[in-house]
């Protein structure tokens, strides 16, 4: 009888603990096309904290307020396909649009990222979100997923960086800068 009571008590405690943990965990509802994005924080490769608001408000690096984030990491095969085009895109829009690679990989170290950038001669700026909170915020499950956020924090494009010869991210940037809807505002992830 004592064994049965102990088992019942233990089961009830474990169930209660599970419910309590689930109740306190914040479920992240991903933001989608057309949603306004709340401010979020990331780090630079030098470990300095920055936020979406700061990135958008810097007239020296982002005169339009438009921000582009491409989820990327130093060890991903599909990222190698967008490394150079992403770096070129960041250079093309330098000062006008903030174009970043965003590394949301757990355990990825800044020195490893910097080494890859140097070896491949990539000039794109990289932000780090080691906890993956920003990926969760956008519902990004694969690298090379790209998000274009306008100056009003609205997601105007969400999807692949490029598809074959189609420069989807660049098309979206040009449309947003012109005050138009991107020709392809959403694509399936492919990483």
Write a structural description.
Residues 1-25 have low confidence and may be disordered. The chain has one domain (29-177): Glutaredoxin. Helix content is 38%, strand content 17%. It contains 6 helices and 7 strands, in the order αββαβαβαβαββα. It starts with a helix and ends in a 14-residue tail after the last helix. The protein has a 7-stranded mixed beta sheet with strand order 2-1-5-4-3-6-7. It has helices spanning 2-24, 52-57, 77-92, 110-120, 133-138, 168-177, and strands at residues 41-44, 49-51, 67-71, 98-103, 126-128, 145-149, 155-160. The chain has 191 residues and is of the alpha/beta class. The longest helix has 23 residues, at 2-24.
Total number of beta strands: 7
The largest sheet, given as strand count, sense and whether it forms a barrel, is: 7 strands, mixed
Number of helices: 6
Evaluate the radius of gyration: 20 Å
- Structural class comes to alpha/beta
Written as H for each helix and E for each strand, in order along the chain, the element string is HEEHEHEHEHEEH
Brief summary:
The protein has 191 residues and is an alpha/beta fold. It is built from six helices and seven strands. A seven-stranded mixed β-sheet has the order 2-1-5-4-3-6-7.
């Amino acid at each position: 009888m004592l064994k049965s009571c102990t088992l019942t008590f233990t089961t009830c405690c474990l169930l209660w603990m599970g419910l309590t943990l689930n109740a306190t965990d914040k479920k992240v509802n991903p933001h989608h096309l057309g949603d306004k994005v709340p401010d979020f924080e990331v780090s630079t490769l030098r470990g300095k904290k920055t936020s979406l608001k700061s990135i958008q408000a810097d007239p020296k690096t982002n005169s339009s307020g438009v921000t582009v984030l491409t989820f990327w990491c130093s060890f991903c095969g599909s990222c190698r396909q967008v490394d150079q085009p992403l770096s070129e895109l960041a250079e093309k829009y330098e000062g006008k649009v903030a174009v970043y690679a965003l590394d949301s990989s757990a355990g990825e170290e800044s020195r490893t990222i910097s080494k890859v950038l140097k070896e491949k001669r990539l000039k794109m700026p990289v932000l780090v979100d080691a906890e993956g909170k920003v990926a969760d915020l956008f519902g990004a499950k694969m690298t090379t997923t790209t998000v274009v956020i306008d100056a009003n924090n609205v997601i105007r494009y969400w999807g692949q960086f490029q598809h074959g010869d189609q420069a989807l991210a660049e098309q979206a940037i040009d449309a947003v800068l012109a005050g138009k809807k991107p020709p392809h505002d959403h694509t399936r992830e492919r990483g």
